[in-house]
Amino acid sequence: MMVRREVFQLSQPARRLANIARSVSRQPSSLLKGTVAYLEVNGRIGALPTVYPFALFPAAGRCQTVLQALDSPMGGVRLSELAIVSAIAAATHPRMVFEFGTLNGRTTLNLALNTADDCDIYTLDLPEERRAEFDAGLVAQGHLRATERPSSGIRRVGHYFSAHPLGRKITQLQGDSREFDFRAFYGKADLIFIDANHDYSYVKSDSAEALKMLSERGTVIWHDYPNSLGVTECLSELKCDLALHHIWETTLACYSRASKAGA
Predict the structure, then answer these.
(1) Which CATH superfamily is domain 50-256 in?
(2) In sequence order, what are the residues at sequence separation of 6 or more whose Cβ sits closer than 8 angstroms to the Cβ of residue 211?
(3) What residues does CATH 3.40.50.150 cover in the chain?
(4) Using CA atoms, how far apart are residues 170 and 174, in angstroms rounded to an integer?
(5) CA dihedral defined by 57, 63, 66, 71, rounded to 10 degrees?
(6) Which of 4, 77, 92, 225 is the most buried (most CB within 10 A)?
């Protein structure tokens, strides 16, 4: 005699809920982290209006971009953010790019890959000895793994472009951004990327200098909004005077004199 066995199968929605419940039970904090991350990238946290990137830069959605160094260390821009920054660079055709915070040079390299051959790219980071001190502080606070420190020798400042052929387009500057003399760059930078010290005083100082450096068709992009308190506080103040936007599903914020124009 044959015994028929009924196999009970959950519906797809039920299986999805079961998987979520299993994941949360293994690491309950993941639920909170996931919720916060969702709120951040979709603009539910922070005071800036959230927009689709290609609504600001229509031409960026049609640009061909090249990406390299796709691995993202802790603290680096996400791959999707790297693609958006690169697309904006390709669409706005900057003659000069300035970056606050070189770190390992991953973003710097991709800016070089997606700009014209005669574009000049300047990137500022702390001198090696001060970089090592700053990184040690981040490790102590749990914001950075020891193996990801640029000063650890594994990912030195400018690591990604130092031996790359396009490194010829890039000038590495050293100094503390609150002490650096930016006057030679005033009114000349067509694209500025700010991803350095996220303390409020630094973000405020870097942003003030960036706006002085900005050309008539320039764009400023900030990283780590709104998941960094210092960045969020500073941009919440700046939005009173500037048309700032949070870029949908990223931790990028943007102010542009070039958006939509000439797209």
Answers:
(1) Vaccinia Virus protein VP39 (3.40.50.150)
(2) 220, 242
(3) 50-256
(4) 13
(5) 40
(6) 225
Cβ atoms of 74 and 148 closer than 8 Å: yes
* Cα 83 to Cα 89: distance, rounded to the nearest angstrom: 10
Phi and psi based region of residue 249 (left: phi greater than 0; alpha: psi -120 to 50; beta: remaining): left
Cβ atoms of 221 and 31 closer than 8 Å:
no
* CA–CA dist 121, 168 (Å, integer): 9
Amino acid at 211: L
Q: In what order do the strands lie in the sheet with 96-100?
A: 50-51, 245-247, 252-256, 214-223, 189-194, 96-100, 120-125, 170-174
CB atoms within 10 A of CB 262: 11
Q: How far apart are CA 258 and CA 109, in angstroms?
A: 22
CA end-to-end span of the chain: 75
Report the alpha-carbon distance of residue 209 to residue 99 in Å, rounded.
12
- Can you read off the two tokens belonging to residue 64? 């061909």
Tens of pLDDT, residues 130-165: 666 766 666 665 555 555 555 544 458 999 999 999
Letter for the amino acid at 218? Answer: G
Rounded-to-integer distance, Cα 38 and Cα 228, Å: 15
Q: Quote the CA–CA distance of 7 and 223 in Å, as a whole number.
A: 51
Helix (H, G, I), strand (E, B) or coil at 144: coil
